[in-house]
Amino acid sequence: xxxxxxxxxxxxxxxxxxxxxxxxxxxxxxxxxxxxxxxxxxxxxxxxxxxxxxxxxxxxxxxxxxxxxxxxxxxxxxxxxxxxxxxxxxxxxxxxxxxxxxxxxxxxxxxxxxxxxxxxxxxxxxxxxxxxx
Amino acid sequence: xxxxxxxxxxxxxxxxxxxxxxxxxxxxxxxxxxxxxxxxxxxxxxxxxxxxxxxxxxxxxxxxxxxxxxxxxxxxxxxxxxxxxxxxxxxxxxxxxxxxxxxxxxxxxxxxxxxxxxxxxxxxxxxxxxxxx
DNA sequence: GCGCAAGGTTTACATCTGTAATCGATGTGA
DNA sequence: TCACATCGATTACAGATGTAAACCTTGCGC
Lengths: 133, 133
Fold this sequence. Notes:
The structure is a homodimer. Chain A is mainly alpha-helical. Chain A has helices spanning 18-29, 35-46, 50-62, 83-99, 103-112, 118-131; strands spanning 66-71, 74-79. The first copy, chain A, has a two-stranded antiparallel sheet. In chain A, strand 1 and strand 2 form a beta hairpin. Chain A is elongated, with a radius of gyration of 18 Å. The A-B interface holds A 4, 7, 21, 84, 87-88, 90-92, 94-95, 97-99, 102-104, 106-111, 113-117, 119-121, 123-125, 127-128, 131-132 and B 3-4, 7, 21, 84, 87-88, 90-92, 94-95, 97-99, 102-104, 106-111, 113, 115-117, 119-121, 123-125, 127-128, 131-132. The structure holds a DNA duplex.
């Protein structure tokens, strides 16, 4: 059994796509927004139309990623799981898939390919100290 | 400029899918294999037929991810970029997308969500010491 | 020589994704 | 009250992906 099997990023099997993620971000930033409001936040940046946002919102509700709460004749959408849960799931998925489950390998890789700046290293060091007094 | 800009995971735009990745893995493990050989390595594990492997190999050659070298009447396939390049690209992509480009944030997140075992922490600590004597 | 096995190539086809347009109901200002 | 603006829901459609079957060529054993 896989060490990451018990903390799914999200409902088992249900995955969030890139486009959907953009919508989720807007709602993690500020929950309970209408389709139009979400569009204001993302349409310009991604060159989307309101229709596209509506579609994505629907799909996310179907997937159980968003709750839609009726407010008059429209809906307010709210994420059903925290950004952290998603981010954590995706991270673990990557570590699992590409580094055989070893997070240390990931860090090693980032360090070796110089994806880690001196500053990053400082931060990580501080973090370690904090984690184990 | 990003320190990682010079090691593209792969030709820009060209992405490798999950299924294709399985095939790449087999060939990273041992390059210059035939379709049948690759199938021996992955078909059982993924429940694929040889036909599926053939399709994936073709697509990978088209994408420029694999070279096919004729060997008699069949082909030997070989990755055109190292696993490290791919893994690095995917890692950076994730860090970029989910952690605003800060690798340290990723590590912090893994640590906070206890995705890092005590052992991982040891490894990382050792790594840090090694990176900055 | 001939049919079969093995190879690659072509075609297939259902889903998933990205990106909308259209439809039908409804609230609203004139 | 009536046209219009809004909303969510339904439908659309192309390209990517997963998964293969069908097809065509060719070397090989009989």
